[in-house]
Amino acid sequence: MNPSKLPRTLGGQLRRQMPAYLKGALVLGVFQLAMNRIDWWSKSAIDAIFGANPGDAASAALVMLGLSAVALFARIASRWYIFNAGRDVEYELRMVLLHHLHTLGAAFYRKMSAGEIMSRQSGDLLQVRLLFGFGILNVVNVAFAFASALQVMVKISPSLTLASFVTLPILIGVTRSFSRGLFQRTRANQEALGRLSDVLQKNLAGVRVVRSFALETREMWRFQQANKSYLEARLALARLRGLMGPMVGATAAIGVLVFFWYGATKLLNGELSAGSFFAFWLALGRMTWPMVALGFSLSIIQRGRAGYARLKEILDAEPEVKDGPEPAPAALEGTVKVSHLTFSHGARKVLDDVSFEVPKGRSLAILGRTGSGKSTLALCLARLLPTPPGTVFVGGHEVCSLPLAAVRQAIGYAQQDAFLFSTTVSRNIGLTLDNPDSDEAMAQIREAAAEAQVLDEALALPEQFDTVVGERGVQLSGGQKQRIALARALSWEPKILVLDDPLSAVDAKTEAAILDAIERQAKERTVILITHRVAAAARCDQAIVLDEGRIVERGTHDELVNAGGIYAAFAEEQTAESELEDIEIDDTQPPSGALQAEAS
């Protein structure tokens, strides 16, 4: 099932589930027809009991028993069809939401937190399911019950029917008044729940930070404030719903009292038989309960509308990056070309007229100071930001004209801030593999882990590759998370490998081993290495230096060192830092004479 083909509006889902609703409505019609016939047979039975042939009541009772069995199965079937349709709507809208969330960029997630999104995916979607299930069932049932009961009541006594409906205008006014309030309070309730979920999600994700700064008391206060706000919104909704039931019920009860007063008068005057009075009472009861339930149904409908209005804020969000119009090529070669790329975040220009080319199977290092635009350039290459048209080409194809999936399958991107899922080490590394638990996949995972210099550490974990790393990899060090993310990119085996500073959290020995692995990767695929380490850039065929979004230097390692620019300054600084570290290490060792004296 393709989520992009599924309807995302209430009307579209209603049309899609219409066959199930028609079947449900049909059996509801059978149910109400059976109840209508039971009313008439009850009239015959009671008139027979008080008439000349009381024995006829037995045959009427048998017919009523059979009709009751039909009504029972019809009622069960109606719930089967309509409730299942509501669950299908929930299932499909959840798929549509996740598919759409995958298309949205950073701008959307800066405005809406993960906790808020989770609240809408759960609480608001539940309200939509109830709308398409219980809500539609009650609306259809009210219509059929009204028609079925009205036929009995009008045929028995039109005047008594009019008298019983004296409170109907009041009932309609009351329900409409409550309907408006329910919509507003339901939306406020769901918004308060979203804020509460957001506070809780952030505390769970950042539990180590909260503990390390002893912020438990402050975070508990924040949670209490959000929890109190949700309680107040919930109570406001509950008060309105609690008031609505008695108000609607009391209004409907007045109509019943009118029936008993006026109907009893007609019965005593001989205008109605005992059977007619009883049948009218049954029919009125069948109509009164749906009228009372109509208030509850309106509550469900308004809650569903309010829930969908919040879901629609997600569904209406426009993706920053969209598929190109051309079909995916059979294969994308590894050549990367950037031509006059300029990119801005709002009014701030991050990249300014950047141009370079990396032939297939070659490697390029990108260096620069913090904030020079290196990571933004990497995101533009993988189309994780809205890359300007006509600026980035892969294998001769302009990336903005291609489907996003084709571009991202060709470009393996390891981001600077390594993100790990709360699952096992093996599943994090083998995320892109079809069956990460197979023997073949495990061999590929171990190989990628060895290349990323994290194999020994993975095997040293309590359950080795089956160790769960926790939320965002909380059980691991920064260097381990970074290398597991690197192994994940290597296990994908893309045509182009973009590595955003994969060495920032590793020691010198591990760095050298990873650089050896990157060199081996460069023999098989195009590698673009974003780094601040000159030692890493020296392993690449070419290097460029960014400064304030512009390329200010380009060439080989030796050429850039001899040029005396920013690259040479980086090399000099890092050489000095390395020599200083070596001196500090030597100072921690006792002199050779002391060792000899100790030995003697």
Summarize the structure.
The chain is α/β, with parallel strands linked by helices and 600 residues long.
Can you give a write-up of this model?
The protein has 21 helices and 10 strands. The chain has helices at 10-16, 18-49, 56-103, 106-111, 114-156, 158-164, 168-205, 207-212, 216-268, 274-315, 374-381, 404-410, 425-429, 439-451, 455-459, 478-492, 508-522, 534-537, 557-563, 566-587, 592-599; strands spanning 336-345, 348-358, 363-368, 392-394, 397-398, 411-414, 496-500, 526-530, 542-547, 550-555. The longest helix is centred in the middle third of the chain and has 53 residues, at 216-268. The protein is an alpha/beta fold and 600 residues long.
List the helices and strands and how they pair.
Elements lengths: L9 H7 L1 H32 L6 H48 L2 H6 L2 H43 L1 H7 L3 H38 L1 H6 L3 H53 L5 H42 L20 E10 L2 E11 L4 E6 L5 H8 L10 E3 L2 E2 L5 H7 E4 L10 H5 L9 H13 L3 H5 L18 H15 L3 E5 L7 H15 L3 E5 L3 H4 L4 E6 L2 E6 L1 H7 L2 H22 L4 H8 L1
Parallel strand pairs: 3-8, 3-9, 6-7, 7-8
Antiparallel strand pairs: 1-2, 1-4, 4-5, 9-10
Helix pairs in contact: 2-3, 2-5, 2-10, 3-5, 5-6, 5-7, 5-10, 6-9, 7-9, 7-10, 9-10, 14-16, 19-20
Query: Mean of the pLDDT scores?
Result: 79
Q: For the record, what CATH class of the largest domain applies?
A: Mainly Alpha
Q: Give the proportion of residues in helices.
A: 55-70%
Count of distinct strands: 10
Q: Indicate the CATH architecture of the largest domain.
A: Up-down Bundle
Number of domains: 2
Shape: elongated
What is the fold-level CATH name, i.e. the topology of the largest domain?
Answer: ABC transporter transmembrane region fold
The structure class reads alpha/beta
**Number of H- or I-type helical stretches:** 21
Q: Characterize the main sheet.
A: 6 strands, mixed
In the CATH hierarchy, what is the superfamily of the largest domain? ABC transporter type 1, transmembrane domain
- Rg, rounded, reads 36 Å
What are the low-pLDDT stretches, counting only 5+ consecutive residues below 50? Answer: 593-600
Q: In terms of quaternary structure, what is this? A: single chain
> Into which percentage range does the β-strand content fall?
5-15%
The neighbouring-strand order within the major sheet is: 6-7-8-3-9-10
Q: What is the terminal-to-terminal distance?
A: 80 Å
